[in-house]
Amino acid sequence: MGRTRTYRAAEDCLSVRAAWLHFIGGLTQTEVAARLGVSSVKAHRLIMRAQKIGAVRVSVIGNIAECASLEKQFSDRYGLDYCEIVPEIDDTAMPLHELGVAGAAFLEREINSGQCSVIGIGNGRAIASLVSEIPHGNLSGISFVSMLGGLTRNFAANPFDVIHRLAEKTNSPSYAMPVPFFANTSADRDVLLAQRGVQEVLALANRADLILVGIGAVAAGANLVASHVVEPEEIMAVARAGGAGEMLGHFFDSAGQPMRTSLTDRALVPPLESLQGRRVVAIAGGGEKITPISAVLASGYLRGLITSESTARAILDKDYKREVSTSSDTVQTQVGVVA
């Protein structure tokens, strides 16, 4: 009896994975079969089984065993209140579609819970993908507020600033911060922050019940550079100083320690200390985000994370190797002292 139940549970999990790849990922049954290492007939039966057990509705529901295990590891290891890890269709690409679908479903659940009246929104490609997956509708009792300046250095619109698209899709009050993400100088930042409209938006951001953010890389190809928010040399200066990840204009080293940089001094964002203990949920994934996510997780500022399966495994592997290396260095130091 025990073996039968275990087999059924395993088949249910495999069925959910097959259904996710087929309905959300857009793979054909033949492609699903190749991905899971089963025959085409088996893939068809798995998809039909997922429908039969009620896992397929408008979207695919249910825990995928491997991802559920990873979610528990992340929650326990990094002190997260919420963690969702999604399988990706192509391990070599940025899983923006998968993250967008998962992020939109998470946001919908949060709105339906009735526990959020103000939701803070960061920027980046994953956040933009989330917004693109939100259906058009009329939301009542919810306000969205940008957590950062929505313009580039030359005051052009930031292509990854999504607050206006949220307003269009939800017909909800949405408040933008009509200033650059980073001012040209710290003196310019002080002048802009003194404006009454900016102060009002920041005050609303400080009341956000939930804050959704992206996580940025610290490299010449980072999204901050691609969107013309900062210059390549500016981000590389942070990298040379040990920067490993960025969240809402705040930079962290590989150990999760906040860094004081020239960019930080010019960022038009809520101060880092104002995020402590709040519901900050990051949506990020892909090979270039492994080190940045690891750094931000180590900072302790995140309460939740939505990422991809391969990203999650790589982060755990990276952190494990770092711990082993640190432990080895400690042992060698102790032996040297004894000698």
What strand order characterises the main sheet?
A: 1-10-9-5-2-3-4
In DSSP terms (H or I, runs of 4 or more residues), the helix count works out at 13
Q: Low-confidence runs (pLDDT<50, min 5 residues)? A: none
Second CATH tier, the architecture of the largest domain: 3-Layer(aba) Sandwich
Percent range of helical residues: 40-55%
Written as H for each helix and E for each strand, in order along the chain, the element string is: HHHHEHEHEHEHHEHHEEEEHEH
Overall pLDDT confidence: 89
Strand content: 5-15%
CATH class descriptor name of the largest domain: Alpha Beta
Number of strands: 10
Backbone CA Rg: 22 Å
- Distance linking N and C termini: 60 Å
Major sheet summary line:
7 strands, parallel
Please identify the structural class as seen in this structure: alpha/beta
CATH topology of the largest domain: Rossmann fold
Q: What is the domain total for the residues?
A: 2
Based on CA inertia axes, which overall geometry fits? globular
Keywords: DNA-binding, Transcription, Transcription regulation
Protein name: DNA-binding transcriptional regulator
InterPro entries: NagB/RpiA_transferase-like (IPR037171), SorC_transcr_regulators (IPR051054), Sugar-bd_dom_put (IPR007324), WH-like_DNA-bd_sf (IPR036388)
Family: Belongs to the SorC transcriptional regulatory family.
Summarize the structure in words.
With about 350 residues, the protein is of the alpha/beta class. The protein has two domains: about 1-50, Arc Repressor Mutant, subunit A, CATH 1.10.10; about 65-325, Rossmann fold. The protein is built from 13 helices and ten strands. It has a seven-stranded parallel beta sheet with strand order 1-10-9-5-2-3-4, sandwiched between helices. InterPro entries: NagB/RpiA_transferase-like, SorC_transcr_regulators, Sugar-bd_dom_put, WH-like_DNA-bd_sf.
